[in-house]
Inverse folding.
């Protein structure tokens, strides 16, 4: 029972991590919370659903489609929404408001286009339970865990090994310095949005498979990613993953042993406790004001 | 029919108080919140439960509502407003959601998701109108004072504000306190007007609407927030058919993005309506034509 | 001029150092600024001049050493507290309250003599009105004195560059400081503008008796204004002395004057 819960928790945490890493990447580079992150998650779930329903009934193909659609959407959000403000070095609050505007607009367009109904994927991962070390574990949870882990490793390798990854890491210390050193920061920002969108699309596709696709999915789940990031330390990628796993396992254990209605209360309580006890998070560093 | 429109006007006044609160926080101090409907909920349920269950007078209920919202606001503001970064924003998101969840999960006390009924009636049109006028008067006083100017300085440039002796974190906390107390007041008035409360009245969408109303009215203009409230709050009552509510939100979202990109200062800029201001405006036009270098 | 020993030091830096993650921005700096002087700090880019200002105003903490203002240790205090003690400053990349009018920029900075409470301001009590009136008159006078009165209602961001610099100095003066730190006030100015600035800075000291510490690259400005100059190079103190002494100091000529005079 406990082992099964932990696996389930890790799969939930893995999905949270996908969203939290994308959020943290943008935050570490540009220093603002991308409130439009949630819409790429929702679109990931709906893209998968419509692909499965109308194009081809294969969940993996559906996931790939979701990643592409969400990645493109994230880049569009940067190009049409944020880029103007970033170029004129607008105050951070304007970026937050723009994100809020975009997500309000898109959330409601999704409701208009798809209605508020809950959509079940016509094709899904195997729902069979298999026996691992004497415990019954859902195949779907194992697959989600594996896919999330794989995606995170790919992103990690990209950031650690590739030239663009190196540039991202450099620019997260100072975007201005990076730009002076001849790095094309506009392109860099676009790459980061693409990665964040693709990860969010994947998360949305997996959430749709685990639960269902519905318009408020992104908002509900992106909140968990924000909490994960604060628990781990805002802007820290490793912190985001750790925070997401803590949150995922904690939520599953709480709903397993207490009640499922306590699950979200747990998440928000954890947020409040962290903000009081260690506001900079588990891995966070306090940054001083630069004059 | 008159009664209906009087009702719309009363509701507009009630929500305007919350918008004015958020205006101080977001428009004047430059802090962003996505959870202020939560403070309305805290105020609403505090006053509703105290007056309904313990039979205390509504006036005391409303004062308790403001105090409770203020207290919770300062509690989450204190640790997060000292930090650089978006900790405060995430905290407001958390408090907005947590408040709703707690109300939903305490059905014995709050009526849960099904709602709370039988709240004593108390917010008449006249009462609300008087309170709105008093709130506007107090806020415009505040903005013309040292404390108000310091809030604006924090919005403009935190480091420059500190360099003239402004305690940045304290003024952020002050703005947070004012906004929370006003949202608490608004929530309590709502409870005593509707005589019914449910957690869905204080969803995250409501929080977003508060912020968007402030933005569209113009950051840093009380007049702008008032005008935007007068236009945008009754709008859902005027447009009440089918999917039109969703289209309304699509439109708000789009408008907010366009405003931020093309005219970040919103409808009113940071101007206030005043007689002296009109005079100065004309003088300014004259000045601009002969503005040159100083020797 | 006067006998140097007789003048009390308003600002003293004693063996001040600053490290940024292993990089030394300031190393064992000792400076003593006499009250009433105009004191220049020069040095090439990256010499640690602005870092020094940031430590004096509490934006950065010092890694080592102490800073005294009027004999009171101030390092470790928050920026706002140091400002209230009487140190005002300007910034290398102008930081005005951009969307406010010239007048409001000044008025916001006038807060030292305001004693009314939050309740007074919420209900605009007679106490509040009276103090506000005094402040308003003071601001008008100050604007008049610094030559900005005709731009009173213009938005700060829309002012020409030279006037933005002037306004930033005026805002610093509005806090009624005893010491003003000017961070490259002549940066980006043409000759005409920098001469006007020289006259202006001189007048602040002469009229209000405010001590001034000035960082700049414009040698003509520094030499014309300063009673005393400190030269920094790579975070270290290179030389100390009167303008004449500095101009003839071989180390300085080698490190700075000869190499990049008008950069």
């Amino acid at each position: 029972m406990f082992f099964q819960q932990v696996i389930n928790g890790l799969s939930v945490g893995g999905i949270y991590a996908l969203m939290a890493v994308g959020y943290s990447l943008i935050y570490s580079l540009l220093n603002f919370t991308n409130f439009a992150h949630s819409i790429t998650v929702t679109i990931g779930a709906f893209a998968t659903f419509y692909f499965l329903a109308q194009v081809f009934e294969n969940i993996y193909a559906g996931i790939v489609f979701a990643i592409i659609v969400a990645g493109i959407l994230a880049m569009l959000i940067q190009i049409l929404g944020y880029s103007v403000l970033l170029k004129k070095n607008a105050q951070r609050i304007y970026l937050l408001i723009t994100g809020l505007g975009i997500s309000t607009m898109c959330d409601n367009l999704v409701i208009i286009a798809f209605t508020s109904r809950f959509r079940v994927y016509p094709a899904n991962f195997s729902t069979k339970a298999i026996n691992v070390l004497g415990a019954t574990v859902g195949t779907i949870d194992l697959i989600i865990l594996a896919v999330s882990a794989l995606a995170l490793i790919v992103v990690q390798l990209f950031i650690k090994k590739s030239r663009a990854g190196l540039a991202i890491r450099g620019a997260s210390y100072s975007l201005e310095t990076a730009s002076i050193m001849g790095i094309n920061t506009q392109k860099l920002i676009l790459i980061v949005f693409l990665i964040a969108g693709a990860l969010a699309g994947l998360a949305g596709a997996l959430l749709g498979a685990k639960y269902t696709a519905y318009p408020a999915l992104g908002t509900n789940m992106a909140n968990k990613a924000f909490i994960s990031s604060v628990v781990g330390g805002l802007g820290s990628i490793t912190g985001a993953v750790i925070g997401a796993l803590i949150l995922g396992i904690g939520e599953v254990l709480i709903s397993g042993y207490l009640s499922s209605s306590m699950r979200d209360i747990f998440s928000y309580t954890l947020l409040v406790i962290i903000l009081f006890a260690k506001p900079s998070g588990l891995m966070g560093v306090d940054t001083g004001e630069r004059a | 029919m008159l009664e209906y429109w009087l009702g719309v006007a009363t509701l507009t006044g009630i929500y305007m108080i919350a918008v004015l609160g958020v205006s101080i926080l977001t428009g004047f101090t430059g802090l962003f919140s996505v959870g202020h409907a939560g403070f309305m909920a805290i105020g609403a349920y505090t006053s509703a439960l105290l007056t309904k269950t313990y039979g205390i007078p509504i006036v005391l209920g409303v004062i308790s509502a403001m105090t409770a919202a203020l207290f919770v606001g300062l509690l989450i503001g204190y640790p997060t407003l000292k930090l650089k970064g978006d900790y405060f924003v995430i905290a407001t998101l958390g408090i907005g959601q947590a408040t709703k969840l707690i109300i939903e999960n305490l059905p014995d006390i709050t009526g849960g998701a099904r709602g709370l009924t039988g709240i004593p009636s108390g917010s008449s049109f006249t009462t609300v109108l008087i309170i709105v006028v008093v709130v506007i008067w107090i806020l415009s006083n505040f903005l013309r004072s040292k404390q108000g100017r310091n809030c604006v300085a924090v919005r403009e440039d935190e480091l420059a504000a500190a360099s003239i002796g402004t305690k940045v974190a304290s003024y952020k906390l002050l703005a947070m306190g004012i906004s929370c107390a006003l949202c608490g007041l608004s929530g309590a008035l709502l409870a005593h007007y509707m005589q019914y409360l449910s957690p869905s009245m204080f969803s995250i969408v409501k929080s977003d609407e508060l912020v968007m109303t402030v933005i569209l009215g113009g950051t840093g203009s009380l007049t702008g927030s008032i005008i935007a409230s007068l236009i945008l709050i009754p709008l859902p009552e005027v447009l009440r058919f089918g999917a039109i509510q969703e289209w309304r939100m699509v439109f708000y979202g789009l408008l907010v993005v366009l405003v931020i990109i093309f005219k970040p200062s919103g409808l009113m800029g940071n101007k206030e309506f005043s007689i002296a201001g009109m005079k100065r405006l004309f003088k300014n036009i004259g000045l601009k034509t002969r503005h040159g270098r100083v020797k | 001029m006067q006998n140097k020993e007789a003048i009390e030091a308003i600002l003293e830096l004693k063996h001040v150092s600053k490290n940024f993650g292993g990089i030394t921005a300031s190393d064992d700096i000792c400076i003593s600024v006499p009250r009433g002087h105009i004191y220049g700090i020069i040095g090439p880019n990256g010499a640690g001049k602005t870092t020094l200002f940031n430590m004096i105003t509490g934006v950065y903490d010092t890694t080592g050493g102490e800073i005294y203002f009027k004999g009171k240790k101030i390092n470790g205090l928050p920026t706002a507290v140091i400002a209230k003690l009487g140190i005002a400053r300007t910034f290398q990349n102008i930081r005005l309250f951009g969307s406010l009018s010239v007048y409001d920029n000044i008025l916001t900075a006038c807060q030292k003599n305001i004693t009314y409470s939050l309740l007074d301001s919420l209900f605009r009590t007679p106490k509040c009105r009276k103090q506000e009136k005094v402040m308003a008159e003071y601001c008008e006078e100050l604007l008049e004195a610094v030559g900005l009165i005709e731009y009173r209602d213009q938005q700060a961001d829309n002012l020409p560059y030279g006037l933005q610099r002037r306004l930033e100095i005026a805002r610093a003066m509005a806090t009624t400081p005893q010491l003003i730190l000017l961070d490259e006030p002549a940066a980006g100015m043409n000759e005409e503008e920098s001469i006007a600035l020289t006259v202006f800075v001189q007048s602040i000291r002469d009229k209000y008796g405010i001590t001034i510490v000035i960082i700049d690259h414009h040698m003509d400005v520094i030499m014309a204004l300063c009673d005393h100059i400190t030269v920094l190079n790579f975070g270290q103190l290179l030389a100390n002395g009167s303008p004449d002494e500095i101009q003839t100091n071989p180390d300085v000529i080698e490190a700075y004057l000869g190499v990049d005079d008008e950069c």
